[in-house]
Amino acid sequence: MSELLFFSLLNGIVTGLLLFMLASGLTLIFSMMGVLNFAHASFYMLGAYFAYTISLYVGFWLGLILAPLLVGVLGALVERYGLRYVHRWGHVAELIFTFGLAFLIEEVVQFIWGKETKAYHEPEILQFSLFTFFGQDFPAYKAFMLLVSIAIFIVLLLILTRSRIGLIIQAAITHPNMTAMLGHNVPLVFMGVFGVGCALAGLAGVIAGPALGTFPGMAVVLGSIVFVIVVVGGLGSLTGAFVASLLIGLLQTFAIALDYSVSDLLAVLNISVDAESALRDLWALSLPQVAPILPYLLLVLILIFRPTGLFGKRET
Amino acid sequence: MSIKSTIIVGAAFATLSAFSAQAAEKIKIAFIDPLSGPFAATGTNGLQQFIYAADELVNKKGGVLGGREFEIVPLDNKVSPKESLVQLKRAIGDGIHYVVQGNSSGVANALTDAISKHNRRNPDSRVILLNYSAVDPALTNEKCSYWHFRFDAGADIKMNALTDAIKNNSNIKKVYIIGQDYSFGKAVASSAIQFLGEKRPDIEIVGNELHPIGKVKDFTPYATKIRASGADAVITGNWGADMVGLGKAIGETGLDVPIYTYYAANDGITKTIGEGGKNRIRLVHEGPVNPPSNDVYKAYHTGFKAKNPDKDVSQFRIVNVIQMLAKAMEQAGSEKPIEVAKQLEGMEFTTLHGEKVVMRSDDHQLIQPIHISVHTNENITFDSDNSGYGMRTESTIAAADTALPTTCKMERPE
Amino acid sequence: MTDTTHLNGGEATAPLVKRLGPWIGLAALLVVLPMIFSTNSAIYTMNLMGIFVVFALSYNMLLGQGGMLSFGHAVYFGLGGFMSMHLVNYIEEEIFVLPIFLVPIFGGLIGLVFGVIIGSFSTRRAGTVFAMISLGIGELMAASSLIFVAFFGGEEGVSGDRTMGPNILGVDFAQDIEVYYLIAAWAFVTILLMYLFSRTPMGRMANAVRDNEERAEFIGYSQRKVRFISFCASGFFAGIAGGLFAINFEIVTEENLNAMTSGVVLLMAYIGGVGFFIGPIIGAVVFTLLQTLLSNYTEIWQLYVGVLFVLTVMYVPQGLTGILAMHGPAFRMQRLGILVVPYIRAGLPTALMLCGIIGFLEMIHHLRAAAVGETGMSLAGIEFDTHAVMPWVVVVLMGSVGAFLTKTQMPQLREAWDQANAPLASDKGVTS
C-alpha cells in the first residue's frame, strides 16, 4: 500500500505540475484580457508536434528550445491579427473565435502531420530509471519533467513579482486603462503575455509529448481540464493556479489508485442494496470510474459557491 | 489554360465513356469506417487494405460474375453510430447492397440493428453487413442477425485462445485485467474471468479495472496500481491511443511481465511501444504474419507494402472478406444479397495462408485458426510501422478448437 | 441589427396576410420539398436538417436572444433523445399506449425538467460564469452517461423500433418519407412557438437582459428570472429536437449529449447568425449540407468547415443571415441591380482564387494520403498527375492571379455598395 501511495503522490505531482505549465499562461491571459482561450491546449499540441519535427533533424534538446519559441511567436500573431481584430465584436465573439481556432488547429495538425500517433520519444540520455523503490522504477524523464515545471514556476513568480515588466503586467491585469494612461503600451503587453502564455503551453507540449503521446486528440484530452484549474485557482492568481493544478493532479491520481466504491461505503454503514434496481450503476460506482468526472464536479461547485475561486480576488 | 482544361476534360470524358461501355457495371461495396477524427489511422489503413485486396484478388483476376469488378466506396462514419446510419442510408440510396465495417462494436451493433430493420421494411433492397473487426460477442449471440457476418474472431473466442496460452505458463499466478469501459472492454473482462476460472482456478485475479475510453491522458497511475498489485500477467483489450498509453506506462514502471492484448500492433502502436514491449507484449489474432506461412502470402504482403509503404497488412481478415464474398457471388451466380447470404452461410474456404476456415451457419461467425504472437525484432520478415519490430507467432490454436457454443436464435427470411 | 427578421416584415400591425404569409409559405415549402428532392439520401438529409433546425433555434434562445453562451446545450438534446428512446421501447413492450408522433413531447418535458434543475443555479450569472458552468455540466453529463449504463446504455447507447406504436391512419413510420412529415410538422410547430416566444414580453425582456442587465433590473425585472425562463424554454425545445432525433435514427448514444454536439450547435447557430431569428435555421441547413455533401467529395472537409467558421467569426460576426440582411436596405430601395455587375466582377476572381487554394490543399492531401505509384488524381472531373510540376503551377497561378484580381475589383465593389445604400443608409445602421 505504501508503494502505491508513494508513487501515486509522485505521479500526481508530475501531472499537476504539467497542468500548471498550461494553466499559468491561461490564467494570465484570462485575467488580463478576459478571454478564456479555448485554443490554449491546441498550442500545447502544436508544441509537441513542432518539437517532434524539429527533433527529427536536430535532436530533442534543440526542439525543447525552438518549439516553444515558435509556438510563442504563433500565439503572438494570433493575438495581434486574430483576437485583437475580433475584440471589436465583443467578448462572446472572442470566446467563440478561440473555440473555432481550437477546432481549426486540430484539423490543420491532421492535415500536416496525419492522423496517427507520432513516434516522438524521450532523448536517449533520459531513458533510464532514476531510482527503484519497492521494486518499481521511476523514470528519469519524469524527474526531468518535474524539474522543468518547478523551474518555470519559480521564474514566472520572480518575473511577476520582482521585475518591472512583471509590475506592468500586474497593473495591466487589474487596471488596463490606467496603465495605458501612464504611457505603457497595453496592447503590446497583451500580445507579449499571450505569446509567452502560448510558449509555456508549447513547452508543456514538448515535454509531455514523449510521455503522454503525440496525437491529434491530445489537445482535446487536456483542453477543458485546464479551464477547471484556472477557475478553481482563481482569476489572475498564479499561486492559485499552482495549488489547483497540484490538487487536480493528485485528485485524479489518487482516485485511480484507491479502489473504493459506493457499495463499500454502504457496506460499512450496514445498508444493503438491490443489485437489480435501475440505480444499480450508482451502487457499483467506484472511485477510479468517477475519476474523470471529479474535476468538473469541482468546477461546477466552485462556480456556484465560490465564484472567485480558491485564491482569486475577483469573480470570473 | 481554358483550352487545355477543355481538352483534358474532353479526354477524360472520352476515356470514361469508352471504359464504361466496355466493362460491366461494378459491384459497389460501401466501406463505413472512420476516415477522420481520432480513429482515422485505423480506418484509412483498413480502407487501403480493402482497396488492395479487391484490386489484387478480384479485379485483376477478371472480376466476378463474368467480368464485374469490385469497387470499394469509402464512407466516413467518424466512429459514430449516428454518422454510420447516415452513411448507410446514403449507400442504400446509391443502390449498394454490401457494407463492410469493423471499428467499434457500438457501430457494428447500430448497423446490424438498422440493417435488420431495413431489410424487414424493404425486402426488395436488402443489405448485407460484412463485419471485419467488431468483436463484441453479443453480435453473434443475443444480438445476432441473418444479415450480419463476422470475419474476425469474437472477443470470447480470442480470450479462449489467450487463456490456453496462459494455462501452460505456470509462472503466472496473479492476473490483472484492464480495459476500456464499454461493451467490448467488459466482454473481454468477463470472458477472461470465466475462462481463467475454468482452466486455471489457482490463478488469482488481482485487479479488474475499467477506465474511460479515449479519455485517459496518462496511464501511469494505472501502471502503478498494476505494479503494486504484484500481477504476473496483464490482460487488456485496449486499442488505439489507449493501448499506446497503457503499454508505454507499464514499460516505464519496469514491470517485466507478459501483457496479453487484442490490438497492440500496427497503426503507430508498434512503433511507439518499440523496445519497451519486446518479448513482453503478446497479441491474439487471425492471419499469421511472421513467419509468413507461404509464398502466396509473402507476395501479397510485399505487393501491399510496395503500394502503401507506411501501412501494413494489419487485418488479414479483410482479404477473407473480399475473397469469400467473391466466391459466394460466383456460387450464387448473382449479386442479390439474399442469394449471396445463402452461399456465405456455412461456406468452407481456404485462405491465402492455406488455413481452412468456415462461416458457421448458426451465428455467422467465421471459425478460423487463432494465433498468439509476440512483439519482437528478432526473426521478423514483415515488421509493423517500419519500426523493425513486428509480431512473431508463438502458438496457434486450430480452428476447430476455437469454436464456442452460441446462443444465437436467427430469424431467417422466407 | 439584432432583431431584424425576415419572417416578419417588421411591424405587428402589418396586415394579416403579410403576417401569416411567411408561415403559409414555410408550410407549403415543407410539404413540397420531398417531392422535389425525392431520393432516399435527400430525404434523410432533410430529416437531419429539420432536427438540427429545431435544436439550433433552441440554442439561439440562449445565445442570440438571451445573451447566454452555453457550451453544454447538447445535455438537454441528448436527455430528450434518451427519454424518447426509452419511451419508444416502452410502447413496443406495450407498457404505454401512445402514438409515436407524440413521443417528442416527452423528450421536451425531460429537457424542461433538467432545464429547471440546472437553470436554477447556472442562470444566476450570465457571461463567463454561465459559460463555464455549462461546460462543466456538459462534461459531467457526458462522462456520467458512460457510467450509468442502465439508463444511457453505455457506449452503444439505447436503440428501439419506431414502427411498433399504435398504427394511426395506416402510418407506421417504416419509411423515411413518413418520418420526414413527422419531423416537418414538429419543426413547423416548434419554429412557430419559438418565434411567438421571442415576441412575447418575456422574449423581449430576454433581449433587454442580454443587452443591459442593469437597466432591465431598474425597470423592475429580475434578470435572473428572465434568464431562467429562457433557459427552461430552451431546454424544452432542445429536448423535442432530441425526441425527433430518437425517432429518426432509432438510436441515441453518448455522442448526443457530449461536448462535440454542443460545439456543433454553437457552430451552426453562429455561422447562420445569432442576431436573427432565422439565422440558426440557415446555419443548420448550411451546416448539414456541408457535413453530408462535402464529405462525399473531400476527406479534408472538416478543415474547410474550420476555416469557414473562423473566417465567419472574424469578418462576418452577424453570420450568413447578416450578409443577406445587409442587402435589406438596397433591396427595399430597389437598387440591388446596381450590385449585380460589381458582384460578378469581384466574384469571378474570388472563385478563381478559392479554386486555386482548394486545389492546392487537395493536392497536398492527395500527395500524402495516396498509395505509392498512385500519382493520378481527379479534381472536379479533371484528371492529372500530382507528381508533375504543371498542376502545381496551375493551382498556384490560379490562387495568386485570383487573389490579385480580387483585390483590384474591391474598390469598384465598395463604390457600388455605397451607391446602392447611399441616401437612406443613415437611419438603418447596417454595418457594411
Automatic annotation (TrEMBL), chain A:
CDD domains: TM_PBP1_LivH_like. Its main location: membrane. The chain crosses the membrane at residues 6-28, 58-78, 90-113, 140-160, 188-209, 215-235, 242-262, 282-305. It comes from the Bacteria. The keyword Transmembrane helix applies. InterPro entries: ABC_transp_permease, BCAA_transport_permease. The keyword Membrane applies. It is a multi-pass membrane protein. It is found in: Cell membrane. Keywords: Amino-acid transport, Cell membrane, Membrane, Transmembrane, Transmembrane helix, Transport. It holds the Pfam family BPD_transp_2. Belongs to the binding-protein-dependent transport system permease family. LivHM subfamily. This is Branched-chain amino acid ABC transporter permease. The lineage of its organism: Bacteria, Pseudomonadati, Pseudomonadota, Alphaproteobacteria, Sneathiellales.
Automatic annotation (TrEMBL), chain B:
It comes from the Bacteria. Residues 1-23 form the signal peptide. Coiled coil: none annotated. Belongs to the leucine-binding protein family. This is Branched-chain amino acid ABC transporter substrate-binding protein. InterPro entries: BCAA_transport, Leu-bd, Leu_Ile_Val-bd, Peripla_BP_I. The keyword Transport applies. It holds the Pfam family Peripla_BP_6. Residues 26-372 form the Leucine-binding protein domain. Keywords: Amino-acid transport, Signal, Transport. The keyword Transport applies.
From TrEMBL, chain C:
This is Branched-chain amino acid ABC transporter permease. The keyword Cell membrane applies. InterPro entries: ABC_transp_permease (IPR001851), LivM-like (IPR043428). CDD domains: TM_PBP1_LivM_like. Its main location: membrane. The keyword Transmembrane helix applies. PANTHER family: ABC TRANSPORTER ATP-BINDING PROTEIN, HIGH-AFFINITY BRANCHED-CHAIN AMINO ACID TRANSPORT SYSTEM PERMEASE. It comes from Sneathiella chinensis. Keywords: Cell membrane, Membrane, Transmembrane, Transmembrane helix. It is a multi-pass membrane protein. It is found in: Cell membrane. The chain crosses the membrane at residues 20-37, 43-62, 74-91, 97-117, 129-152, 179-197, 228-247, 267-290, 302-326, 346-367.
